Amino acid sequence: MLQKAPLILKFRDAPLAVDQSLLNIDRQECEESLYDFLSRAWDKIDPSSFTHGWPIEAIAEHLQAVVDGQIKRLVINIPPRMGKSTITSVCFPAWTWAQPHDSPTSGPGVQFLHASYAKDLALRDSVKCRRLLDSQWYRQRWGDKFSITSDQNTKTRFDNTRGGSRLSTSVGSQLTGEGGNIIVVDDPNAAQEAFSEATIETTIEWWDNALSTRLNDQKNGAFVVIQQRLSEQDLTGHILEKDVGEWCHLMLPMRYEKGRSFQTVIGWDDPRSEEGELLWPDRMGEREVRILEKQLGPWGAAGQLQQRPEPKGGGIIKRDWWQLWDREKFPPIEYVIASLDTAYTTKTENDFSAMTVWGVFTEAEGQKAMATRVFGREGYAELVEERKYKEEHPKAIMMHAWQERMEFHDLMVKVAETMKEYKVDKLLIENKSAGPSLIQEIRRIYNHLPFVVEEVDVNRYANISMDKVSRAHAVVPLFAGGLIYAPDRSWSDMVITQCSVFPRAKHDDLVDTVTMALQYMRKTGLILRGEEWTATIEEDMLFTGNRNNESLYPA
């Protein structure tokens, strides 16, 4: 057999002799998945053995979608010690540069900008990435695609001969003149500073005013943010709250929570099915997770492990009190109520206006929803009377929710569109901020629509003065009694999360709509606790004459 001549391969601007036999590799390896690349590159960057697992594969799939142009805004939440930095900040750039197809987010010409809350962490991953590129394994396969330039090859930044680069920086640093095709923010908030208002404000200001303008190609470039949740005001919370730019949210809690699992834009969903099932038992088993939960405490575990931060002092309305409606369609709805909290005044124009839409239903066997709809207060007696002897007492399901910052006219249009779409019977508007003015305008412009608008004084209920916290406590029996349902939707998770962290939440606009709607339904007899419902029926059987539809017990 003839001996093959050595191939001269250029790398780092210097000739490198490599045995041709080592390059006898199927060139399709250039197109291997990021997950496969990670598994084979692991021992070049980490002394521990590689552990296969679907969570890291899920991250890889979504990062691939970024390179393919399917996702341009990606936020990933995953517990610590799951290899997120290795795949996102070390392997991701190296794999992207090895791709055979060139585009703004694919091939050796891609410019990366990586940031972390600490410069040392950013540099650590930069060095690992550089070592991977310099490894014999990588050079044998993709070294002919590019070389690392000798005039720009430092820990902070290195460039390649095809125009690609990897720049490392830290949160809050100056970025004048710098940018990237793909901008990756890995751990923007430090765990030990999760509740530091000054640090949080600095991070958000840097994101909004500096990093948001650093994409080289605003149309085709991409942002990737990956972190463990630390507080509702961390960067993930800020991004999801603003909801600008169609973000894809990949959330991977340590213990599976069926009510919070939903499909991402690329069709991926959590493969787990059992409540409480661990994320990656081969990497962190039950014993390790229990120890970590005790060390972190309930609030730390809620954020860093479950990716649903709940600040200390929150939790009047518990997350697990919400009943999951897991069917494809809503139940037959008997009555629809919308609850609106307005925020637009000269002093609160930066706050949210928020709305939740609620349907009242029963699930008694053989019972049908009312054939005719009722409107206004006078209809409640008829509705309650019709349902009194059904096998099950009524419940409420959240049908839709939104919160937005908007001008008065836009708010009015948004409200009217929601009313028409969900066939709302009654609209409740709190008598504060723009509420009274909005009521007048809706009655004037939309008086042809079949719904009633009612002004509500939420500060008084059953002739008792109530603050926000008291109102939340007043509806707790409805939740604890299993009467309140919500579907598996991202907007419902937004409401449930805000309720679960109240009264320590950054915003409480949606909470106000929830308590206003449920108080109203309870007050008018549309929904009652089991004891109240039974007592109402027994009272009706014992007495004749006028019936009082008020709740048996004031909240």
Description:
This protein has 15 helices and 19 strands. It is an alpha/beta fold and 555 residues long. An 8-stranded mixed sheet has the order 5-6-7-4-8-9-3-10, covered by helices on one side. A 7-stranded mixed sheet has the order 11-19-14-13-12-15-16. Strand 15, helix 11 and strand 16 form a beta-alpha-beta unit. The longest helix has 20 residues. The protein is elongated and about 75 Å long. The N terminus and C terminus are likely disordered.
Low-confidence stretches: 1-29, 365-380, 387-391, 536-555
Shape: elongated
- Biggest sheet descriptor: 8 strands, mixed
Strand content: 15-25%
Query: Which structural class is indicated by helix and strand composition?
Result: alpha/beta
Q: What is the strand arrangement across the widest sheet? A: 5-6-7-4-8-9-3-10
List the total number of helices: 15
Rounded to the nearest angstrom, the radius of gyration is 28 Å
- The quaternary structure here is single chain
Output mean pLDDT: 80
- In whole angstroms, the N-to-C terminal distance is 92 Å
Count of beta strands: 19
Task: Summarize this structure briefly.
The chain has 555 residues and is an alpha/beta fold.
Question: What is the secondary structure topology, with strand pairs?
Answer:
Elements: E1 7-11, E2 14-18, H1 34-45, H2 54-67, E3 73-77, H3 84-97, E4 111-116, H4 119-134, H5 136-142, E5 148-153, E6 157-160, E7 165-170, E8 182-186, H6 197-209, E9 222-227, H7 235-242, E10 248-251, H8 286-305, E11 323-325, E12 335-341, E13 353-361, H9 378-387, E14 395-404, H10 408-421, E15 426-430, H11 435-445, E16 452-456, E17 460-461, E18 464-465, H12 468-480, E19 484-487, H13 490-501, H14 509-523, H15 530-542
Parallel strand pairs: 3-9, 3-10, 4-7, 4-8, 8-9, 11-19, 12-15, 14-19, 15-16
Antiparallel strand pairs: 1-2, 5-6, 6-7, 12-13, 13-14, 17-18
Helix pairs in contact: 1-3, 2-3, 3-4, 12-14
